[in-house]
Design a protein that fits this description.
InterPro entries: Swc5/CFDP1/2. The chain is 34% helix and 0% strand. By secondary structure, it is mainly α. The protein has one domain. The longest helix has 17 residues.
């Protein structure tokens, strides 16, 4: 997914939608910039992936 996102020209808009089907947990440790600290249950592997992806996208956007 990272390579695909990087291949999109900067003048294009990207909308990501759908059911990402992950639990991100109530704690936002390590992901304060992309997780508001609201949630429930335990973080699972899918939730970890969602937060990592959001962090990478946010880091990419802050370069421009």
């Amino acid at each position: 997914m990272d390579g695909f996102m990087q291949s999109i020209p900067l003048d294009e808009k990207v909308f990501i939608g759908g059911d990402l089907n992950g639990h991100v947990w109530a704690s936002n440790d390590r992901f304060e910039r992309v997780h508001g600290g609201f949630g429930y249950g335990n973080r699972n592997e899918e939730g970890e992936s969602i937060l990592e992806f959001a962090s990478k996208i946010r880091s990419s956007l802050s370069k421009y």
